[in-house]
Amino acid sequence: MTRTALTPLHALLALAVVAVWGTNFVVIRWGLDDLPPLTFAALRFTFAVLPAVFFLKRPAVPLWNLAAYGLLIGAGQFGVLYIAMTQWISPGLASLVVQTQAFFTIGFAMLLTGERVKRFQLVALALAAAGLAWLMTHSNADARPLGIALVLVAALSWAAGNTVARTAGPVNMLAYVVWSSIFAAPPLMILAVTVEGWPAVSGAIAKADAGAWAAVLWQSVGNTIFGYSAWSWLLARYPTATVAPLSLLVPVFGMGASAILLAEPLTPAKLTAAGLVLGGLALNTLWPAWTRRTAAQAQEPA
Is pLDDT above 50 for 180? Predict the structure, then answer.
């Protein structure tokens, strides 16, 4: 029988995952101090493949599916995200803006299925859009318009990757991420050599200290191997409506860790934008479950 509420131990596991995913934006910022963005992204996906690929069976999905997911998540999401975080957006705000992938994912689903947008989704989107607009007009160097635009591109790529992954059907998500990373690392390295130049790539790798390699391993082992495997394990045992809302805590951890570890100021303008965006995400995530629960209670005999 599927549980509907997380046990205390499993709730701690879920919180550990969102904490890793949220604080990961601070780790990205640290890694970018030593490694060029595309080089950093290429190394992240290289170590997501090795050595895990030798211990996980390839998912029974077409190669084009793995390749599409790898390219979208590798170059499209993280390659662009890392570039944005070099100088155009702070880690805390990046962790917030990238969550707009939820709305892009809904848009892709509607395009593919012909489903009509619901009223609560329009309200949720309006709240999130208002938050982004507020951020663009009231932020300083913490979030330049180009940085917000680049992170929105990353969110769009993430949503497209989610859509591709859904066509794969029920698979071992950890194995899927690891095997798809085979198609992410080489293009990222080619882009790194082309855009950043071989001297910059080789020089950065040669000079990388223990902190830089720790940031790479945190991305590949902590964020990917632990994060995806634990999250998939929870989703296999609990309803999506129980687990998915906890992802709303990712930007909370992201902004909190940025404030504590990087002294990123939590200004009133930034908190207002965060409240609007998170409000929209919360409405989009929680409204369907709330309406189902309300309808079920209304049908119960008095």
Answer: yes
**Whole-model pTM?**
0.87
Cα(226)–Cα(219) distance, rounded to whole angstroms? 10
Closest to 155 (Cα-Cα) out of 209, 105, 113, 203: 105
Q: From residue 122, give the alpha-carbon distance in Å to each of 53, 104, 107, 127, 272.
A: 41, 13, 11, 9, 20
Q: Which residues pair with 89 in a beta bridge?
A: 143
Contact (Cβ atoms closer than 8 angstroms) between residue 212 and residue 34: yes
Report the range of poorest mean pLDDT among 43-52, 60-69, 108-117, 198-207.
Answer: 108-117
Helix (H, G, I), strand (E, B) or coil at 110: helix
pLDDT score of 241: 66
Task: Choose from 84-93, 221-230, 285-294 the range with maximum mean pLDDT.
Answer: 84-93
Going by the DSSP 8-state scheme, the letter that residue 36 receives in this structure is -
- In three-state secondary structure terms, 77 is helix
Least Cα distance to 225 among 44, 74, 22, 31 occurs for 44
Contacts for 300 with CB less than 8 Å, ≥ 6 apart: none
Of the chain, the end-to-end C-alpha distance in Å amounts to 27
What distances in angstroms separate CA 201 from CA 76, 152, 191, 204, one per listed residue? Answer: 20, 26, 11, 5
Domain layout of the chain by residue ranges: 8-290
